[in-house]
Amino acid sequence: MQTTIRSAVTFQGVGLHSGQPARMTIRPAMAEHGIWFKRTDILLGDALVPARWDSVEVTPLCTRIVNQAGVAISTIEHVMAALAGCGVHNALIEIDGPEVPILDGSAAPFVRGIMARGVRALHAPVHAIEILEPVAVYTAKGWARLSPARPDEGLTMDFHIDFADAAIGTQDKSLSLANGTFVRELCDSRTFCRQADVDAMQANGLALGGTYENAVVVDGDKVLSPGGLRHSDEAVRHKMLDALGDLFTAGAPIIGHYEGHKAGHGITNMLLHELFANPDAYRLVACDDELSARLPGAGVERDEIPAVA
After folding, report:
1. Are 24 and 74 in contact (CB under 8 A)?
2. Collapsed DSSP state (helix, strand, coil) of residue 181
C-alpha cells in the first residue's frame, strides 16, 4: 500500500548555496497526494511546488523545482532520496525559504527523522514505473541510461565517477536498492567538492552555506574536512544518493536498472524527460507484496541507520 509519515518532523539548518536559515517540516499527506513542497514564507499567490520531473529547472549544482508562478525550492535531492529510501510515497513538505537545509551534507539526518516518526500505510495501492525498453541520454560531460530490471530485482544502480583529485579519483559502485540498502549503504554519504571549486562558487555568490562540516572538501590527495571520509568510496555513494532522489521526481518508484557515467542532476532529469517522451518504454504497474518487497523503502529498520545521522 501507499504510505505517508506518521507525524510531522522538523529540520532546521542553512541552505548550502544560499546560506539562508531554513526550517523545514515533513507532514503526513493522503493517498495519491505525492510529494509537494509549500513555501510558508509566500503569503500571496501559489506557494505549492510539486516535486516532479517536469517542474525541475536544470542547474549544475542541485535539483531545483519551480511552479508556474515562479516559486522555487532548491537542493531537494537529499530529502527526496530519504523519502524514497524510507518508502514514503506521500508528504507535504513545508519550508520557510528557497532552499532545503543541507544539515550534514547527506540524507542521514532526514532518514533518522523520518524513521523516528515511522511510516503508516494508506488505503491505496502503490504503483511503480516499470522500465520496458532502454532509454538513454548522452552529453559531453557524461551519460545515463534506464533499462529493464534484472530478473527478480527492483531498482538497481551502477555508477562511475572520475575526478582528477587523487582523494576521489576513479570510483565505481553497483547496488540493488531493495531491502533497506539505501539506509545502510548510501544515506550517510555527503556531498563533495574541490577546494578550488568552493573558492570559485563563493566568489560567484554560491555555496555560501558550505562548510567543512556539511561537505567533503578535497584538495589534490588531501581530504580537508575534519574526520576524513565516512567511506573510502563516499563520493560515488553520494552520487548514487543524488540519483535516487532525482529519480523519485518521476512520481513513483522505478523498477529498472539505472546506469550513470559521470552523471549529475541535469543528466538524470534529461533521462526522465526522455523516458516519459517514449510511452512504449515504460508502464505503470500496481505492486503486489512480492514487487513491493523489491522497492527501495522495503524492509527498512531503524537500527540500520548509520550512527553518524
Report:
1. no
2. helix
Amino acid at 14: V
- How does pLDDT run across 181-227, given as a tens digit for each residue? 999 999 999 999 888 888 887 787 777 788 888 989 999 999 999 99
The answer on 278 and 191 residing in a single domain is yes
Classify residue 183: in a domain, yes or no: yes
Give binding residues as ranges.
78, 238, 242
Q: Is 112 left (phi over 0), alpha (psi -120 to 50) or beta?
A: alpha
* Residues recognised as catalytic: 265
In a domain, 309, yes or no: no
Q: Where are the beta strands (DSSP E) in 143-195?
A: 143-147, 155-162, 170-176, 192-194
Separation of alpha carbons 205 and 180, rounded Å: 38
Q: What is the pLDDT of residue 308?
A: 59
Whole-angstrom distance, CA of residue 95 vs CA of residue 76: 11
Q: Identify whether residues 199 and 144 lie together within a single domain.
A: yes
Res 111: pLDDT: 96
State how far the Cα of 67 lies from the Cα of 50, in Å rounded to an integer.
7
User: Between these two residues, 19 and 65, which has the higher pLDDT value?
Assistant: 65
SS3 at position 16:
coil
Give pLDDT, residue 302. Answer: 76
Classified as helix, coil or strand, 232 is coil
Q: What is the pLDDT of residues 247-266, one digit of tens each?
A: 999 999 999 999 999 999 99
| 278 shares a domain with 214 | yes
Domain extent at residue 51: 3-121
Poorest-pLDDT segment among 65-74, 88-97, 197-206 = 197-206
Residue numbering of the annotated binding site for Zn(2+): 78, 238, 242
Last residue of a domain, one of 121, 148, 182: 121
Q: Do residues 233 and 145 share a domain?
A: yes
Q: What is the identity of the amino acid at 220?
A: G
Q: Which of 164, 173, 172 is nearest to 194 (CA)?
A: 164
Distance CA 118, CA 115 (A): 5
